[in-house]
Design goal:
With about 280 residues, the chain is an alpha/beta fold. It is about 40% helix and about 20% strand. Helix 2 runs parallel beside helix 3, helix 4 packs across helix 5 and helix 9 crosses helix 10. The longest helix has 23 residues. The chain is elongated and about 70 Å long. It starts with a strand and ends in a 5-residue tail after the last strand.
């Protein structure tokens, strides 16, 4: 039997993940009272049940101590029942935005600010996250991408990518993305904007790419950047980081940054134990 505990930050997508896993054939139960967790495990282990894939959703609630949940899970494991923990994560700003848009109250901030509830919940769940088998950060994941990640782990049994790397091209004149971890400025390269036939194209088009990469400095920068990223990634993974956002910026975010972001993506894809995606924030096409 494959037994998965789904937990994590409120608003990070726990229910969405459970619904997706239910569609994948998992028997899903959400938010059992603590005294019933052990009884539920005994129930699903009965031979006549013939249940082979189970999801138990657990979250922080104002009416129960999460320490009791941890104790119940420890008791289950000591009895010889193995389970995996999927922890759903998202940044504080993303969670705040989702609560604002949904107009729902945070379970730990019923009479206060959402951010206070988020901080309290993050502290409570610190131990659970540290011991989780899988941490999925949904801050920048599309619903389709979350489904693909869950299918990869829980259906296809493929290697889990503990770190998701997002390469973002942007224009400095539109502002630096607020959530980037590393920012690289490629405005030192000649600007295709001043070439009439390239002005209205983007770095996604061959003509612009060829122009930008024709300069020796572009190739040297790309190689040094790639070397540094490949050095950083295993160290980030070792320290438990689950998301890395790399920002590459030029003036308008259409030519040089797009080209170098695409080139870095090509260097990085299929090269390690990490997920990889690319976003062109300011490119018009």
């Amino acid at each position: 039997m494959r037994f998965v505990i789904v937990t994590g930050m409120s608003g990070a997508g726990k229910l969405t993940a459970q619904k997706m896993m239910e569609d994948m054939g998992y028997y899903c139960v959400d938010n059992l009272p603590v005294p019933l967790i052990a009884k539920f495990v005994d129930f699903i282990l009965e031979p006549k049940r013939e249940v082979t894939k189970v999801v138990l959703g657990i979250d922080v609630r104002a009416d129960q101590s999460f320490d009791e949940v941890m104790t119940a899970l420890a008791t289950i494991k000591e009895s010889g029942v193995e389970y995996e923990v999927l922890f759903m994560e998202a940044s504080d700003s993303t969670l705040q935005k989702r609560y604002k848009e949904s107009r729902r109250k945070h379970p730990l901030a019923l009479d206060g600010r959402v951010i206070d509830g988020i901080k309290q919940e993050r502290k409570i769940l610190e131990e659970m996250k540290a011991s989780a088998d899988y941490v999925i950060d949904t801050s920048h994941l599309l619903t389709r991408e979350l489904k693909e990640e869950l299918e990869s782990i829980f259906v296809k049994n493929e290697n889990y990518n503990s770190l998701m790397v997002n390469i973002v091209s942007f224009g400095f004149k539109h502002g630096i993305p607020a959530d980037v971890d590393l920012v690289f400025d490629v405005r030192f390269l000649p600007n295709p904007f001043y070439i009439d036939e390239l002005k209205n194209k983007t770095g996604n088009e061959k003509e612009v790419r060829d122009y930008v990469m024709s300069f020796e400095e572009a190739g040297v920068f790309l190689q040094k950047l790639t070397d540094m990223i490949f050095f950083l990634i295993p160290n980030y993974i070792k320290e438990g980081k689950n998301q890395l956002i790399i920002g590459i910026g030029c003036t308008g975010g259409m030519h040089r940054s797009v080209t170098l972001a695409n080139e870095l993506y090509e260097k990085m894809k299929d090269q390690g134990n990490y997920g990889l995606k690319i976003t062109h924030r300011d490119a018009k096409s």
